[in-house]
Write a structure and sequence with these properties.
Layout lengths: L2 H6 L10 E2 L10 E3 L2 E8 L4 H14 L8 E4 L3 E2 L3 E3 L8 H4 L7 E4 L5 E6 L1 H11 L14 E11 L5 E12 L7 E9 H4 L4 H19 L3 E13 L3 E13 L19 H8 L14
Parallel strand pairs: 2-6, 4-9, 8-12
Antiparallel strand pairs: 1-13, 2-13, 3-13, 5-11, 7-8, 9-13, 10-11, 10-12
C-alpha cells in the first residue's frame, strides 16, 4: 500500500483537532501513529484510586498533550494502512539529515545486523504535532475515543522508588506485507529491582527480534527510548508509554497541498508551511 495513499486517507472530521482512528464520520482507511512517553506525579493526599487517576491524567498532559481523551487500548501494531508521524510524514529533520547515530546494533534471526536508534526524534515529532498543555496544536479532540498502543505503571511507594516507562517501534523491511511493531513497557524498581535503562532497552529490543522471528517478519531498524523518575514516599507516580492512532484535521494540511504531500516534507517544513508558533523544546526525561 502506497504511503501517500495511506496519508491521503487519514483525514478526520474535526477542523482543528486530531480524531481517534475509526471516529465517525470515517473519511478514509488510513491512520497516523504518534509516539509519547510521559511521567505524572501527585501528592498522595486522597485515596489510592483518586491519586492514581490524577497521576495518570497528569502523565497524559505532560510533554505531548493528549489530555481529556477516552484512551482505548489496542495490541501494538502500525499496519499496512498506517503511517508513523515524524518518520513517514513530516519526517523529523534529524532523521532526514541522517544526524542520528545508533545506540547499539543487534542481529536478527536471519543474521542481518539491525541498527537500534534513539526514539527522541519521534517523541519530539509527536510533541510538535499535538502541542503541549499550555500551547496546543492539533491535539486529539477533547472527549474523543482514541485507540492507543499503551502501557502504564502507577506506584505509591513505601520507600523511595524509581518508576519508568519505555517505548519502541520496529520498522518492517517489507511494509507491503508486514506491520510495524510497537512494544511498550512500564514498571518500577520496587517490582523489578534495580536495572540500568540501557539493559531494559536491550531486553525490549530482544523481545522485538524474537517476535520478528516468530512471525517471520524482518525489521530493518528499531527506535527505542525510555524515561524514569524517582518517586519519594508520599507521592504517587504514573509512567505512561503510548502511541495514539489518529486521523489528522484538515487544518494540519498546508494550503495548496494534499495530505500525501506531507510524506515529502520535513517536520520543520511542515511547521513553516502552516506558520506555527514555535513550541518550547521537547522536555525529554523529567528531572529526579
Amino acid at each position: 500500500m502506497n504511503i501517500k495513499d495511506v496519508v491521503n486517507n487519514a483525514i478526520g472530521p474535526f477542523p482543528d483537532n486530531c480524531a481517534g482512528y475509526m471516529n465517525p464520520p470515517v473519511q478514509g482507511f488510513g491512520y497516523i501513529a504518534a509516539l509519547k512517553l510521559s511521567i505524572g506525579t501527585v501528592v498522595a493526599d486522597m485515596d489510592e484510586g483518586l491519586d492514581g487517576i490524577v497521576s495518570y491524567d497528569r502523565a497524559e498532559c505532560e510533554d505531548a498533550y493528549i489530555g481529556q481523551i477516552n484512551m482505548l487500548t489496542a495490541s501494538s501494531f502500525c499496519g499496512l494502512n498506517g503511517a508513523v508521524w515524524g518518520y513517514d510524514l513530516a519526517r523529523h529533520d534529524d532523521l532526514a539529515s541522517n544526524l542520528i547515530q545508533p545506540k547499539m546494533t543487534l542481529e536478527r534471526h536471519d543474521g542481518v545486523v539491525v541498527p537500534i536508534m534513539p526514539l527522541d526524534p519521534l517523541l519530539d515529532a509527536g510533541y510538535r504535532l499535538f502541542g503541549n498543555r499550555d500551547q496546543r496544536r492539533f491535539n486529539p479532540l477533547p472527549g474523543a475515543m482514541v485507540v492507543c498502543a499503551n502501557k502504564s505503571r502507577t506506584i505509591n511507594p513505601k520507600v523511595e522508588t524509581t518508576v519508568w516507562c519505555a517505548l519502541a517501534i520496529a520498522i518492517a523491511e517489507d511494509r507491503s506485507t508486514s506491520a510495524n511493531l510497537f512494544i511498550e513497557d512500564a514498571s518500577d524498581t520496587e517490582t523489578t529491582g534495580e536495572m540500568p535503562l540501557e539493559d531494559l532497552e536491550r531486553n525490549i529490543v530482544l523481545s522485538i527480534l524474537r517476535c520478528g522471528r516468530d512471525q517471520g517478519v524482518r525489521y530493518r531498524e528499531i527506535f527505542i527510548g525510555s524515561k524514569q523518575l524517582t518517586i519519594p514516599h508520599g507521592t504517587v507516580g504514573c509512567a505512561l508509554a503510548c502511541a495514539p492512532y489518529v486521523t489528522l484535521p484538515p487544518s494540519a494540511i498546508p494550503a495548496g497541498y494534499t495530505p500525501g504531500d506531507l510524506t515529502d516534507m520535513t517536520l520543520s517544513e511542515w511547521e513553516a508551511q502552516l506558520g506555527l508558533s514555535p513550541l518550547s523544546p521537547y522536555p525529554g526525561a523529567p528531572l529526579p
